[in-house]
Amino acid sequence: MDMNTISILIGGKAGDGIDTTGFIVAHIFSRLGYRVYVYRDYPSIIRGGHTFSIIRVSQHAIAAHEEAIDFLLALNQETFDLHHHRLKEDALIIYNSEAVKLDTSIRHKSIGLPFEKIIKEEGAPAIMRNSCMIGLFAKALNIPWEVIEGTFKKNVSREFELNMKVASRGYREIEPLRSLETLSQPIFPLLSGNEAIGLGLIKGGLKAYIGYPMTPVSGVLHFLAGLAQKFSLYVIHPENEISVMMMAMGFAYMGERVAVGSSGGGFCLMTEGLSFSGMSELPVVIVLGQRTGPSTGLPTYTAQTELTFAMASGQGEFPRFIVAPSDAEDAYYWSAMALEFSWKYQIPAFILADKTVCEGMYSFDKDSIASILEEKLLLWDRKTPYQRYADTKEGVSPLAFAPTKDAVIKVNSYEHDASGITTEDAQSTKKMQEKRLRKEEYLYEELTHYVTVTVSGNNDASSALLCWGSNKGVCSEVAERLRLRMIHVAVLSPFPLQQFKEALAGVEKILCVENNASGQLARLISSYGIGVDEKILKYDGRPFTIDELYGRIKAIIS
Fold first, then answer.
1. Mean per-residue pLDDT for 344-363?
2. What is the per-residue pLDDT for 32?
3. Treating both helix axes as pointing N-terminal to C-terminal, what angle do 160-172 and 115-122 enclose, rounded to 10 degrees?
4. Burial class (CB in 10 A: 0-12, 13-18, 19+), 130
5. Which residues pair with 514 in a beta bridge?
6. For the chain, which domains are there?
């Protein structure tokens, strides 16, 4: 077994505490100095159905999981039946012997304990079977007991002593089977993508977050609600998504930095309000979490299907900023910058996340993130009569917020003149439309000073993997193994054409990797006269694993 990178799959029924178990195991490895990535897979039902987490740990930063696993932790028979094919040759199975019967053809080493019997003897609730599993697993890797105890103490708020008693029963049961090295490198906090988005928005000056719960971005709403008092935030859950967007417009009118959140189905209801934002030039950030559609689709699974929707949503033509983060650091940085650019240019901005990013968990290295610069707003100088839509070179009008003395601050969803008065005059209409669209030219120019396209792997390779969003993690590892170039596009509107062409220098073959059925990024770059040679697409609701993508790419380039 390669102890430099380890994959652990924990599975059971929905409601069995699988997420919490994965969370604790991830923190154990984090305390030992490892970098961690957690993938969550669960059905859209509260109880029953199969759920599992894959915790992958490494000495280096990672943001993707593998198909093959080193440890299978099975609370029930279904977990073993569905996942034993993933086991590496030297993998270890740890299981509840009262609920799991191993296939006699399995030759892997296994350890089973009667978890129900143990929790009954300790007078513990059924959910604490997980604690026994964690203790047994930790001892198999010879992880010091004080690490287990410290992790539980920090992350388990209820019945700590009883959890420790149950965990110790599993810990005492066996002798160590392998030895896990403790790394002498920084211990990084673990964040979900949703938490990183929330913290990034706060860094960008967020004052109000308004959302209607919808997987996969419900976590942003819940996370920020928990921080509302500490950061003096308004966190509001209105009756529907139409109310979400219109309430956001009210906050923006009053000068409060605001963000909203939903998935594609909820965002459908926001699109008229989005156009209102474009016409009235009221800044708002939309956290748009992608999941499998159309319609309800697979509510708890992933996709990259809303790029075209975000690009074209809303009636009429108006500029917008769209960014698709790839991991926790990306989510933090670009969420802050989305607020900054939205307010500087008075436009709507999208944080186009996918379920893999939103609900994945990552080791968060804040020191690796570029400086987040506070953009200077253009404010009314009080020297001339206030005009909310005054025409300027950049198309950005001076801001004033109600109540301001001597200023009539009129916003209008109709076409309007510089003062916000409704007009249907042809020349005024043309002038205002050009003013609004001009912002995109200056935003594009400003973005040339930011890293909007990243390149990794073999920079001299003539074949490149092209990706966006969460596929950066899996593509970067596959590109490294196959000595290919990896190109990741973070900003999708305005599209960073100059940086993209520089990243493509010397590339003869483009392989575009996306979690959709049509190749939406490939279609976007084709509008700039750039074609892809191969589309590697996956649209079953699951992200690419490293093993899977490696095999598909190798078959193409061989």
1. 98
2. 96
3. 140
4. buried
5. 537
6. 5-172 (3.40.920.10), 190-368 (3.40.50.970), 453-557 (3.40.50.920)
